[in-house]
Amino acid sequence: MTTPVFSGDLKNILKAVSRTLYLSINVLPHPLKTSMAMGYLLARTMDTIVDCPKVPPGEKLEMLRLFRGLNNRSNSWALAARIKPAASKPADIKEKELLFKFEKILAVYSAFPEQERALLDSLINGVAKGMEMDVALFETAPGVPRTLGIETDNRGAGHKLEPVPGEPKVRGVSALKTEEELKTYCALIGGEPGIFWARLYREAIRRNNINIAQFPSETAACLIGSALQMTNILKDLAADLRIGRCYLPACDLARKNLRPADLLKAENMERLRPLVYQWIVWAVDCLDLSEEFVASIPKTELALRAAVIWPVYWAMDTLLEAAKANLLDPLARPRIKRNKIYSTILSTPPLLLSNTAFARGYRFKREILILVLSGGS
After folding, report:
1. In CATH, what number is assigned to the domain containing residue 114?
2. pTM of the shown model
């Protein structure tokens, strides 16, 4: 059995539900491209289900359980049967399409050779654990304990939070308790895909460079993936708060005399900013390992190098926007402009052939970001 080709509906679905990751995956050679795309689409399907408020918490947990056993044909059939009625529930049209096409995604997954499917199963298992944290913390249902977080309406039980005009009402906001919980969450949701990424790279490099001794580090990939997840958490902070989710730890907020419900007010951003800067610095410390990771990829593997360089550079650009933005304002979500994305792609060729050039570009972005964090303009 050979790895299926990345084309047709699979390619169109990926392009619809990912903004920049599609560019990184699409440049990869077959079969690595198909494996990376399949890993993302399976994880994104789980994420879409977990984020959908119209799907009951118990149903979400059952679907995550079935995802964990996707290699069992009866589980995959049961999962497809559950996802079909859920496909009409997401508000986003692209996410609806993702769920409607799940049976096609499942068919491609089933066509993978057993060894490659085992890598996908490992990824699914790790990401599912993180999403189970989401359901346990942010959902209320019989048998789903809220032991990972706290109720955070700081005005006391029964206080009605002020809704943002035109947005759904928020009953309350729950938060992770500690910094370790947040790091664990990032390691599952972002780090596990990073490990999957490193393992696929290792196999691709081994096929083309038989005598090579050094391979990309899974540890480094896990931390880089965790940093990418932290970047997503920060840029989506306002939107997540409005569905009752705060990923910034309650213990950190308490030191600033804040409760998660206070973050529904954009004017509290200046009180929150030092904490945001703390987590930006943590993400940058993790992204620093990208120099080691890129250097471990042979310079003959141009596409593999590009597919690491781009998301790292774009993450640094997004963190810079996050450092300057009011992350509590739902209208001020930090995004890098499309021309910035394409200018990165156009400037890639010298970075592919020189580890020094990549490191120089990365450190330049790092210095600008640190300057902004330290109060410079």
Report:
1. 1.10.600.10
2. 0.88
